Amino acid sequence: MDSQQSTAGPARANNAEAMQKEKQRREEQAEQMRVMLKAILTPEASERLANVRVVKPERAQQVEATLLQMYQQGRLPGPVNEAALKQLLDQYSQAATQTKVTISRRNNFDSDEEEDDDEDW
């Protein structure tokens, strides 16, 4: 039983180290993204994206990923201003809008009501 406890200790330590390394890697990636976005966006566009991130974090992540991809592919001619960011956000808004169909059914006849009516005859 002592051998099981002694092997569990290093396994937990390795797991904790792996989790710490993963956390550090994610933080480094996030910092790299922030640096790249700062280079890509004008201050006004960066502020607007920060506002979007507060309200709709998923949308902000989509836009950030798109901007980074466009930057890496060389499809951005220069810094993205607020107007260009608005256009990109509008494209995502239109894509996210879905048609909603609601079906309402009328209850013309209720089986209980029919039985009650029959008894009156």
UniProtKB/TrEMBL annotation:
- Which protein family is it in? Belongs to the PDCD5 family.
User: What is the scientific name of the source organism?
Assistant: Porphyridium purpureum
> What is this protein's record name?
DNA-binding protein
Q: Where is the composition biased (Basic and acidic residues)?
A: 19-31
Q: Which GO terms describe its molecular function?
A: DNA binding
Region (Disordered) residue ranges read 1-31
Q: Which Gene3D superfamilies match?
A: PDCD5-like
Task: State the source organism's domain of life.
Answer: Eukaryota
Q: Which InterPro entries match?
A: PDCD5-like, PDCD5-like_sf
- What keywords are annotated for this sequence in UniProt? DNA-binding
Q: Name one GO cellular component term.
A: cytosol
Pfam families per the UniProt record, alphabetical: dsDNA_bind (PF01984)
